[in-house]
Amino acid sequence: MTYAEVKVEVDACRRALRNSGVVKADRVGIISRNSFEWAVYAYAGYGLGAVNVPMYEQQKESDWRYMCEDSGLKILVVNTEAIYETVKCFVGTVGNVERVLCCGFPQEHPDSWAGFMESGHAIELDDNPELSSVNSSDLATIIYTSGTTGVPKGVMLSHGNLCSNIKGVVDATEGWKTRLVTHDDQSLAFLPWAHSYAQTCELHAGLAVGASAAIHNGTPGDAAALLENIQAAKPSLLFSVPTLYIKVYDGVHAKLAGETGVKKMLMQSALDVGEKVRKIRAAGEEPGMILDWQHQMLDKVVLSKIRDQFGGNLRMAFAAGAPTPIAVLDFMESIGVRMVEGYGLTETSPVISTTCPDPGVCPAGSVGFALPGVDVKLMMDGVEVEGEGELWCSGPNVMQGYWQKPDETAEVMVVEADGKQWFRTGDVATIMNDGNIKITGRIKEQYKLENGKYVAPAPIEGAMVLNKVVAQCILYGDAKPFNVAGIVPDFEVVAKELGLEGPDAEPTSICANPLVQDFVSAEVDAELASRDVAKFARPKRYLLIAEPFTAQNEMLTPKLSIRKPAVLRVYKDAFDGLY
């Protein structure tokens, strides 16, 4: 659809909302995967001054009920008939819900989205609700943080918050050779727009520059459908969490390990030459004539085939939501895909910083420079410090607060004597002399071993998951004599490596097999040693877990982060039994 056609639909939706009694500051919600209807509904609400409350399809009925009750939303749009049947009882019983609409119903159904939109189209075109009453301080959206602990908190973001972040993402490239998002770009929208990362960076920033998006028609975790859609859409941009890039990294190295003879030599040579060229360009230079020729030949034969997994047209890949292992960043760059890492939180709209895609500007492992207009500093025990400290952020991107939670807001928002307001990110960081930011841990996740040594789990978990046998993992060891780890193996890889078939290849059998336990332990131990993880921090024992962490068993957030408290509620006794 063209931008003009989208505008017609947004205007019709805005008229239908107004005709349904929605006025400025009313909350309107949606439970849906990414869709055209999602975008139309959001922008129609924004234009009317209503407050968008997005939710995830993967959440439970109790989560939807809580968010509808807490936000007091008026109209709820859902994607499927199954969800409609679950939440239709909310009308008149939960908060202020007056109506539930379903995108999956035929137009003649009284609660169909199609019928709702038709009512908007039927209103005279010159009877459009005015847009001028919306200003930058008005509330635009309440995004509930799924979080890995506790009850969801509604993050209040104003129109000014969102627009400042969109402008910051676009303006960040001033003076850079490479633009982050351009008019000619097309993304494949598979990360949920209900999360602020995909919503701001892909949907809003993309529309701001006139880019386009193809919409993934599966769930974010549906790998087969995602790969199929990548091939069909051939995106120039991908917005993802690191998991996708890690899977490609693991897949390529597993294939390399299984090759022999000329094929293996050719593949290894291509990866080696790609890495040499990456290092040279990172130093601000260009490869010599012979190396450049080798690179072009091997790129045509090998590296371009790897890039074809991303559709063959990928210009740039964005990663956020969790740290991307440096080995994966280097790998992606060496096969010819420019990587951009962003950092932020829902509370900061969400982007605080982004790396520059130009070679050599941002060292691997950094999350780049703060966006224009965003200030950062390091604090420890109430005093600004150099070196390492908690990262605080100030700027027009910082939220208004948590919806109806003044005490929780006061815990993270600090107004200093000069009147400047700062947000405490909870992340430990360092800021380099040139302004590059490096996140080194999370305050609430860091812990001490029994010997008093501090452990930051994220980098160690990131190193473990690089091994082909590890699908998911968590580190455990607070106040213990040493670390242990819980690992969900890649069952297919393990079965293939050890020649397991039939019942022996079932997850429960694999995890109970002493041969597998020894194999996985050896693989992970070697991986951590190769990544220079400090010996005291390496796990000494491993718990193999047969059930993957998923949103359905509440061990993953909708953005695919592991909910450690939920995992520990199930496996804590098993972890303690390793000591």
From TrEMBL:
Gene3D superfamilies: N-terminal domain of ligase-like (3.40.50.12780). Keywords: ATP-binding, Nucleotide-binding. This is AMP-dependent synthetase/ligase domain-containing protein. InterPro entries: AMP-binding_CS, AMP-dep_synth/lig_dom, ANL_N_sf. One of its GO terms (molecular function) is long-chain fatty acid-CoA ligase activity. Residues 1-403 form the AMP-dependent synthetase/ligase domain. It comes from the Eukaryota. Pfam families: AMP-binding. One of its GO terms (cellular component) is membrane.
